[in-house]
Write a structure and sequence with these properties.
The complex is a heterodimer. By secondary structure, chain A is an alpha+beta fold. Chain A is 57% helix and 17% strand. In chain B, strand 4 and strand 5 (73-74) form a beta hairpin. The chains are: A alpha+beta, B alpha/beta.
């Protein structure tokens, strides 16, 4: 007997009791659709969080200067400048796992355009910063290396600042004043949105680090009174880069073994990792719920298949009398159970995707249907059918043809 | 296999059932030969063992002791699967209550043995159609059993028994559920099959049905009490032209 024929016979047997078959499948349908919809919503949320972390920059390390300590009162990190410009150069050139590094000096300052003003954070940095943050220019151009070397008075605005100062007009080519020094606006950055803590990335302006030192901070300094942003060569190299930079800075600052660092390094990948850990827990939870509901669905299938075998005892007897071997009968009922569960699984996938899309549309949630979860759900529901169909099918195949023919 | 061997050859066949711990012997040593092309009626009152003998002859059951050669092959010790194959290839069954699959068309019912014989779709439908035409139901191919009269249902069952070209047709009280006029029609069909060379063994407790056979075997208390040949009564349907009325 070929498999296609067996499948067709199974389908026909199931169609004879449409309502019963549907109710039997319901357990599997609900289990699978719940998994698909929940995972789609969970993945959508995860993707959104990941996007936020990606906005902060991937494989990002932030080096902050150490704390000051005077009379027992200890300031926080950054209260004492301990990083030098030579440290930055060393990080850039001596650590293999570092792709690029950029200084960031910050100061709150008032920006004045022709008829507006806006107080924001002005940051002095180098072109590498934008690369590290994966932050591109929306219009105009960015800060160039020659701007940094020449200390030119150019400024790049974040979207928020641009709209505060110039409204809907084009800021590129306009002039803004900071502490009475005119800066030419050369570009506007892409909108970057908010950080996970609610800070508006777009509320800021950038000038070349040299210009920042001479015009905003005042006077060249030996110490780098800000932070250093570093990107590792890949996300998986972040931890290695962190260790290497720590070792390098301890050497350069001549910190003896056992003593505390006079700087600190923040690793944003760690935060993202914790986030993913949480998602993983969630996924495990969902998977166990799915497993339970599928097992319950499987028991429903077994129950109905047992009823079906009893009801069709005479049919089994007739089939055996005309030459069906035990394995033919086994296959027939097994394929029926498989068809029930597989059909339930496929319907569940359709309802899950549809339901997820509906929820997404209704509550504006992002959803992400993962093909692997869909595949696993379908395969798993098929397995449930085979496992729970085996006992009734075996029972049918072991019937005595004489008894079966006599069954009323 | 030479032409000379018998189709059925039973030697000292016994059958004992175990009802719990109690052994119940039903057949006490049956020996008989049936040659190809014979038409045999097995008679006996209820409890005589005729149903048990029928099950053994039909390879639905195995004897407790003794040997049974079907078409020269010892089938008394075969496995369930092998017995199924023997039934499929060599034997056609006709039952008292027809045993057709409900909600399944006549042609699909007749195709059933061919499915297990591994015959392809087109060939199956061709042979099933031919078998139904042979029993006079060429115009009822797609009718379901519930749409057919008792006589017609039994014809479908006979077509199903014939479709594999078996050497033996085993009929268990084939007219038990039919009125006398329809019974004659069915017996005429069996006689026709017997004349075409198929061995027909029918089990009955009705004398006039047994009268249509060439040989009568009477069982009593698990033993052959009588075994004789007779001039069969010719089964002549009253008026073949009258259409059958749906009885079910």
């Amino acid at each position: 007997m070929n498999p296609l024929l067996t499948f067709r016979l199974a389908l026909r047997a199931l169609l004879r009791n449409k309502m019963r078959s549907f109710l039997t499948m319901l357990g599997i349908i609900i289990g699978v659709s719940a998994v698909i919809a929940m995972v789609a919503i969970g993945e959508g949320a995860k993707a959104q969080v990941e996007k936020q972390f990606a906005a902060m920059g991937t494989s990002l390390l932030i080096v902050m200067p150490g704390s000051s300590s005077s009379g027992g009162a200890r300031g926080g990190f950054g209260s004492q400048p301990t990083l030098t410009w030579d440290d930055l150069k060393a990080i850039q050139t001596e650590v293999a796992s570092v792709k690029s590094a950029a200084p960031v000096l910050r100061s709150s300052a008032q920006l004045v355009s022709e008829d507006q003003n806006w107080t924001t954070t002005v940051q002095g940095t180098t072109p590498a910063y934008f690369e590290i943050r994966t932050w591109s220019i929306a219009s105009g151009s960015g800060i160039t290396q020659s701007d940094v070397e020449g200390g030119t008075k150019v400024i790049v605005l974040g979207q928020t600042v641009a709209s505060r100062l110039f409204g809907s007009g084009d800021p590129v080519g306009q002039v803004v004043r900071i502490k009475n020094t005119p800066f030419q606006v050369v570009g506007v950055l892409q909108a970057k949105g908010q950080s996970p803590t609610g800070q508006d990335y777009d509320d800021g302006a950038f000038v070349p680090v040299t210009t920042f030192q001479s015009k905003i901070q005042g006077g060249l300094q030996k110490y780098l009174s800000g932070t250093i942003f570093i990107s590792a060569i890949s996300a998986s190299d972040t931890a290695r880069a962190q260790a290497a930079v720590t070792g390098l800075l301890r050497d350069r600052h001549r910190i003896p073994n056992g003593a505390d660092d006079d700087f600190s390094i923040r690793n944003l990948t760690e935060i993202a990792g914790a986030q993913q850990e949480g998602t993983k827990t969630m996924t495990t939870l969902l998977a166990s719920i799915a497993f339970v509901s599928l097992v319950v669905g499987g028991i429903g299938i077994m129950n109905i298949m047992l009823v079906s075998v009893t009801e069709r005892t005479r049919e089994i007897g007739v089939r055996m009398a005309v030459g069906a071997k035990p394995h033919h009968i086994l296959a027939q009922f097994l394929v029926e159970a498989l068809t029930l569960s597989l059909l339930g699984g496929l319907l569940g996938v359709a309802i899950g995707i549809g339901g997820g899309a509906w929820l997404a549309a209704k509550f504006a949630w992002p959803i992400l249907v993962r093909p692997d979860i869909v595949g696993v759900s379908v395969v798993f529901s098929a397995m449930v059918g085979v496992c729970f169909g085996l006992y009734p099918a075996r029972k049918a195949s072991l019937l005595d043809p004489i008894e079966a023919l006599r069954y009323e | 296999m030479s032409k000379s061997h018998a189709l059925l050859e039973l030697d000292a066949v016994t059958k004992t059932y175990h009802l719990g711990d109690v052994p119940v012997q039903v057949l006490y040593g049956i020996s008989l030969r049936v040659e190809p092309g014979e038409s045999v009626a097995i008679m006996g009152s209820s409890g005589s063992g005729k149903s048990t003998l029928m099950n053994i002859l039909g390879c639905l059951d195995r004897p407790t002791s003794g040997s049974y050669l079907l078409d020269g092959r010892d089938v008394s010790r075969l496995s369930r699967g092998d017995l199924a194959e023997v039934r499929n290839r060599t034997i056609g069954f006709v039952f008292q209550n027809f045993n057709l699959l409900s909600r399944t068309s006549a042609v699909e019912n007749v195709e059933l043995p061919l499915i297990y014989a591994g015959v392809g779709t087109r060939e199956r439908s061709k042979r099933a159609t031919a078998a139904l035409e042979r029993v006079g139901l060429g115009n009822r191919l797609d009718h379901h059993p519930s749409q057919l009269s008792g006589g017609q249902q039994q014809r479908v069952a006979i077509a199903r028994a014939l479709v594999t070209n078996p050497k033996l047709i085993l009929a268990d009280e084939p007219t038990g559920n039919l009125d006398s006029r329809t019974s004659v029609e069915i017996m005429a069909l069996f006689q026709e099959l017997g004349e075409s060379g198929i061995t027909v063994v029918l089990v009955t407790h009705e004398n006039d049905i047994a009268g249509y056979a060439r040989r009568m075997i009477v069982l009593k208390d698990g033993l052959v009490k009588d075994d004789h040949r007779q001039e069969p009564v010719r089964a002549i349907p009253e008026t073949a032209a009258v259409p059958e009325v749906k009885t079910a």
